């Protein structure tokens, strides 16, 4: 079911120009590289999830999760998936997500995602 969801969101998002990312990256080995990515489905899911978190999470937990997310993503990007630090941060993030659920309605048009309800 999740694959079908991503296929549909990828189609909807790509038609509207959602999820095109062009960034300069600092690689783990010390070089810079240009990365061009297309991830419309993931961009839509992340947008919806963030808005659910805005509604559900306490202010302090929201900001704490935001601050550790940078370290968490850095560990994964640099290949430290199995590190004790990543696992510790995962447990904290899982705790913050315990009550984050719900239905969110989005409108996607010409590269913009808006929350309808």
Fold and architecture overview:
- One of its GO terms (cellular component) is cytoplasm.
- InterPro entries: Arginosuc_syn_C, Arginosuc_synth, AS_cat/multimer_dom_body.
- This is argininosuccinate synthase.
- One of its GO terms (biological process) is L-arginine biosynthetic process.
- Its EC number is 6.3.4.5.
- The chain is 54% helix and 19% strand.
- The chain is globular, with a radius of gyration of 16 Å.
- The chain has helices at 2-15, 40-56, 59-77, 84-96; strands at residues 20-26, 32-38, 106-109, 112-115.
- It has 117 residues and is α+β, with helices and mostly antiparallel strands.
- The chain has a single domain (2-115), classed as Argininosuccinate synthetase, chain A, domain 2, CATH 3.90.1260.
- A hairpin with a 5-residue loop joins strand 1 and strand 2 (32-38).
- The strands form two sheets. It has a two-stranded antiparallel sheet with strand order 1-2. The protein has a two-stranded antiparallel sheet with strand order 3-4.
- The chain is built from four helices and four strands.
- It starts with a helix and ends with a strand.
